[in-house]
Design a protein that fits this description.
With 110 residues, the chain is mainly beta. It has 2 helices and 11 strands, in the order βββααββββββββ. The strands form 4 sheets. Strands 1-2-3 form a 3-stranded antiparallel sheet.
């Protein structure tokens, strides 16, 4: 996310096409910051690397599979991920488990 240039608030959020600071109500349009908004809005993994469709990722911690007794172990790799909108950031297939949705905070780019 982008910090507010007026108040340096870390709580700024994206509202439509502008970034808004909830502490001072300052609005910052994307054309005012140029490349900074594009870079900060990019989807990043646990190490801060920008992720893209078809990347290969590695799970960074053991994850329980909801509704099952299975566990995705740390170090498990998934190839050809797809970035999606919603609760989870990634759709992928994990060998032995099948199709899954994961959050980027639990994976790193392989």
């Amino acid at each position: 996310m982008l910090n507010c240039p007026e108040y340096d608030s870390e709580y700024s959020y994206e509202d439509g096409i502008a970034f808004v600071c909830p502490e001072c109500a300052h609005e910052l349009l994307p054309n005012e910051v140029g490349e900074a908004v594009v870079e900060d809005a990019a989807i990043k993994d646990a190490n801060g690397n920008v992720s893209q469709d078809w990347d290969t990722i590695t799970v960074t911690k053991d994850l329980k599979v909801k509704g099952s007794s299975l566990v995705v172990k740390a170090g498990t790799k998934a190839k050809n991920i797809r970035l999606v909108d919603g609760d989870h950031d990634i759709e992928c297939k994990i060998s032995g488990i099948g199709a899954m949705k994961l959050k980027l905070e639990f994976v790193k780019k392989a």
